[in-house]
Amino acid sequence: MEILVCVKRVPDTSENEIAVNSDGTDIDRDDLVYSVNEWDNYAVEEAIQIVDRVGGKVTVVAVGDDESEEVLRREMAMGAHEGLLLSDDAFAGSDGKGIATILKAAVEKGKYDLVLTGAQADAGAGQVGGMLAAMLDQPYASLVNKIEVIDDKTLKVGREIEGGNQEMNEIQMPCVLSIQTGINEPRYVGIRGIRKVASVEIPVLGASDLGVSSDAVGAAAAKVKVQDYFVPQLGAGAEMLEGSTEEIIDKLIELLKAKGGLK
Amino acid sequence: MEPVLIAPSNFSFLGIPTILFSLVIPIVGVGLFTYIMARRIAPLVKAAPDNRFDDIPNRVINVVKIWLAQWRQPRYMTAGVLHILIFFGFLALGIRSTSLVIIGLKEGFVLPGMDGVIGHIYNILKDYAATWVLIACMIAAVRRGVFRPERYDVPKKYGHDHTGEAVFVLGIISTLMISESLFEASYVAAQVQQGVKPEFLAPGTLAWLLKNMVLDKPQETLQSLHIASYYIHDITFFFFLCFLPMGKHFHVITSLFNVFFMRTKRGNVKPVKYGITDEQLDDLESFGVKKMEDFTWKHILDFYTCADCGRCSDQCPANAVGRPLSPRFISIKGRDKIFKNYPLRGDFLKSEPLIGDIYEEDEIWSCTTCGACEQECPLGIEYIDKIVDLRRGMVDEGMVPQSLQKPLKAIEKRGNPWGKMEKKRSEWTTINNFSETCNVKILEDGVTADVLYFVDSISSFDDRMQGIAQATARVLTAAGIDFGILGKDEKDSGNEVRRFGEEMLFQDLKRHNTEMIVNSGARKIVTADPHAFNALKNDYSGLPKVEHISQVVARAIKTGRLHLKMIEDESKVYTYHDPCYLGRHNSVYEDPREALDALEGIRRVEMLKSRDRSFCCGGGGLMLFYEPEEEERMAVLRVKMAAKAGANVIVTACPFCLVNMEDAIKVAGMEGKMEAIDFVELIDRHLIR
Amino acid sequence: MAQIFTYITHKGGVADDTALELAAAAKKIDAGAAVTAIVTGTGSDLDAVCNDVAASYSEVWKIDNPALAYPNAEAVRKALINILPAGAILLLPHDTFGMDLGPGLSIKTNSAFVADVADIEGTDGTTLKLVRQEFSGQVSTHVTCDASAGAILNIRPGVCKADESKSAGGKVVDKSGNAGDLKAGRKFLEMVQAEVGDVDITKSDVLVSVGRGIEEQDNIEIAKELAEAMGADLSCSRPIVDAKWMEKSRQVGTSGQTVKPKVYMAMGISGSFQHLGGIKGSPYMIAVNKNPKAPIFQVADVGIVANILEFMPELTEKIKEL
């Protein structure tokens, strides 16, 4: 099975509070470190496991600048066979649709039975997989937390839906799936693994190589634009509720209602 | 002088001269033994290299002390004394057994030099030896067969009980003792009967007892006993020789070598591959131990040498809390696998990955590398290096628990397991207005100091453990020491990174820290974290001298540079918990105790398990992030031990111990009854400034 | 302004809470708009939902087709492509169905798509002014969306207060005939129910989390009752798991689960480094602890100094009365 996994390089923001830069145009990236989007990492692991079972090849692809090569290498150190970097100045400022457009061109240059994306990335939109599938006219399932290969045309996939339930579907290949965390236990990639693939050639394709019109991607084509960043107001320390237990409870219930803490 | 009985070399049985047996039995025995040993040596030859011919003086000392003097045996008194008796009995009887074999060919053979007074003394000695060995064997057999100490139990998952083998061998040894003594006793009895001056048999010995028992037997019976006991001894002797390499009694042969080749350094971890420099690591095809032959030959010798005595597992904290690890079975399973893969007959089998076959992932991650097992092993068997090598293999294959992947990645990216920003590493120096009362220099931009305080990650970032960093800074200041820290340029020491098998990440950390430390210009390093202490001292090279804060404090008290008050609360009873990486791995036992005892009025008690038998708190570094299946937490057991000793304050000297102890006190519901404090915090509280 | 539609998800003949939230969201785009709800499905359940929401919308477009019995996003997409007028603005709930449907639909209708909208600030001509969150909710953004060729907006459930006015008095229009061929490359097979007692707290929106302050195993029941009353899931800190009072799967912390709830009730939890490390996405945190100096109060939004064993039953009682 030929599998393409779309990965993204994102800042690792889990352990440190994020600040917005002085003019509010971006988050403060000075002290950030970057790694592969967590969901994408699960997708790559899943692809490797599928290929281990049924044979085939895993290709990882990223849209981004030269630095995205680092995450491609990490995923190749995991076991992805090939990497592909889609990089062009014209791609800068693309919205979800723009990214999907670029990826679509890359998918069409190959012959993939299955395209995987992470269910979401740093922007929390979870849109590229669904857009890509629609552009390719392929079936799509989001939030996939189980994949079973039925035959060379059909997969059985589970989607993680509300309440921890799992929606089982049969889906025809070629198709696009967006992968939810927890579908597997991604293997560890050590520094040694990354060094082993350090010299593997990763092809870089630009807009013209892909046959993507620069009108269709980039900031100019984006219908959805981030205007500014801001940090939602946070108080320093807790607001202490005082008074009689009854008063406290009344106030608390009010707060819970407002914050969606009561169902 | 005419012999009173026909010797085996002259006897005929059913018309066959028995000298034939005397010849055939040793030839077959030695031939078979040589063949077996050759098969056993094959895996050692195929194993990874190991460098065990260095440090010869210490190796000789180890042989004399641990092998010959049985130094570690009395740590388990009953079993130890029994073993010492049998061991020395064997040594004494070795000469007799050798000459007996030749006596079968040549009547009255005496080894050169054994014909005079020495021979007489030896004869008395060996008779007593045979006697005490027999008695020791009987006691041992009763102990194993009837009383069945828990230590020897074989949990179901590790296969069948080993009592049968143990008792069988005790039976063989007893047979040797009885037959040897009877051979002699029957002859002396015949001498008595025939009025010949009997050879002297020491009263109370087995031979003496047997002589008295057969004294009234007819001549023919004595003759039969004489011949029969000889050949029973001969056959049993060679059978035993060939049986030794089949199981746990292999140690009778291998122990001398295993002790000679045992670890002579402490606190260190073996290189990924002997003969490969750190710079060449990138070129290695594979890392660590994945299949049997990836172990070094010494480690395979360890497997052969394990006597199944269970002392390692009895001391192992992981085993004590029900984690899926028992060091004893690391050895036994390894040995059984080699025996299976290298059978005595037929082709050697293809080697399969060990993880998932004889070892499980959780089993290998369960080890805290506390070193209690190695400290205890009377045979010099190593576990830490094996565990680390197996982990290196797992890391290389990507088999790392999810809970450990995050901190490892955070260390790679940020230099600390929580992924905190580098610039926050020195935040403890300003928190709670600390800088107003104690100024801590950051050694950058040309700022220098005599001493570098290496803080390491947990004391830098954990808000509770920052207290240790601050106390250390105050104590150093009070002692008049000019010190500073690296601040954001410090990264995790990597003690656990290395012991969790991520060697390349460790190498990066080592390279970075070494460069930063050397560039700082400090002439000495001090740390309050034994894990950092160990790494800098034993894993790094080319650094200034490293000391733990307890060593600095003890010296400063002696030289009068630190002055301490009376103990604050005289009703408190203190006990000192030895951190593994300060005590066992680096032999710092006395300094913290001396410093504590310098607090006037302190009431201090020792726990039963202390110094080199200290019980691990559950481990530090990455161990904080890994949660194996366990029934209880190690620190909870430890806190209970402290209570049992009559203490109500546990003083430790390691931030990780403190985390675990403080948690355990709450888990055990002992809040108010027990408290934990770090050594340097206690000293800080009692400073006369 | 373009015509505004909402898509109603439903189950067992009952419309989801988002049905009325989307009505309110539509008003935020255009207070005077006549909003149309689209409901897909089949049979009496579908009718019940249509009638249920009709009062809140100007019109309800019903699409009845056996192929839509289970909401298969691909089939729904085909139906919507056929019935949505050009340039329409469609609001979807940003739930597991909306995530499945929205992105692909926007491509097929050539409209703009904005996922997980946290707030709608208004419009500027054909440009929608929206608020989103990035980096697990740590940072908010103002986003503009060019809706001139239509837009699909996935609205985060719970952020718009449901429009309960039911004053639109709409009528149900059967559009089933316009839906066209609904053949899909993906086929729903079955629903695998989550195992009882095996709640995935990493997906919970509201967590009642207990720590050492619970004191005894029997007291877990008190917390459970509170969680049930709130419709929350129960989680805990490490000591509770160590004591084997709750399963490991419910432990929050660096050594346990990483949770991203919207509301987190820390009951008797002191707030260790390790525990807080397992809480992501800046939830609204309420801490109850008898120790006024507990570090949890430094990070919580609201703090209450009380013994949880006394406080929780009273709170439960009050919530039940609501």
Secondary structure layout plus pairing:
The complex is a heterotrimer of chains A (263), B (689) and C (322).
Chain A: E1 2-7, E2 9-11, E3 34-36, H1 38-54, E4 57-63, H2 69-78, E5 82-86, H3 96-109, E6 114-118, H4 128-136, E7 140-149, E8 154-160, E9 166-172, E10 175-179, H5 191-196, E11 204-205, H6 207-210, H7 218-221, E12 224-230, E13 239-240, H8 245-258
Parallel strand pairs in A: 1-4, 1-6, 4-5, 5-11, 6-10, 7-10
Antiparallel strand pairs in A: 2-3, 7-8, 8-9
Helix pairs in contact in A: 3-4
Chain B: E1 12-13, E2 16-17, H1 19-46, H2 56-68, H3 77-103, H4 117-147, H5 163-193, H6 206-214, H7 219-243, H8 251-260, H9 297-305, H10 311-315, H11 317-320, H12 327-341, H13 361-365, H14 372-376, H15 384-396, H16 402-414, H17 434-437, E3 441-442, E4 451-453, H18 457-461, H19 466-478, E5 483-485, H20 495-499, H21 503-520, E6 524-527, H22 530-539, E7 545-548, H23 549-558, E8 573-576, H24 590-597, E9 603-605, H25 634-644, E10 649-652, H26 655-667, E11 675-678, H27 679-685
Parallel strand pairs in B: 3-5, 4-5, 4-6, 6-7, 8-9, 8-10, 10-11
Antiparallel strand pairs in B: 1-2
Helix pairs in contact in B: 1-7, 1-9, 2-8, 3-4, 4-5, 5-6, 5-7, 8-9, 9-12, 19-27, 23-24, 25-26
Chain C: E1 4-8, E2 10-11, E3 14-15, H1 18-29, E4 35-41, H2 43-54, E5 59-64, H3 73-83, E6 89-93, H4 96-108, E7 112-117, E8 119-124, E9 127-134, E10 139-146, E11 151-155, E12 171-174, E13 186-192, E14 206-210, H5 220-230, E15 233-236, H6 238-242, E16 263-267, H7 273-276, E17 284-289, H8 296-299, E18 302-305, H9 308-321
Parallel strand pairs in C: 1-4, 1-6, 4-5, 5-12, 6-11, 7-11, 14-15, 14-16, 16-17, 17-18
Antiparallel strand pairs in C: 2-3, 8-9, 9-10
Number of helices of chain B: 27
Spatial order of strands in the largest sheet of chain B = 3-5-4-6-7
Number of helices of chain C: 9
Strand order of the largest sheet of chain C: 7-11-6-1-4-5-12
| Structural shape of chain C | elongated
Most extensive interface between two protein chains, with residue counts: A-C, 79 and 88 residues
**What class do helices, strands and sheet pairing of chain B give?**
mainly alpha
Q: What is Rg of chain C? A: 22 Å
Low-confidence stretches of chain C: none
- Which percent band covers the strand fraction of chain B? 5-15%
Q: Please mark out the parts of chain B with pLDDT under 50 across 5 or more consecutive residues, or reply none.
A: none
Distance between the termini of chain B: 91 Å
CATH hierarchy, class of the largest domain in chain C: Alpha Beta
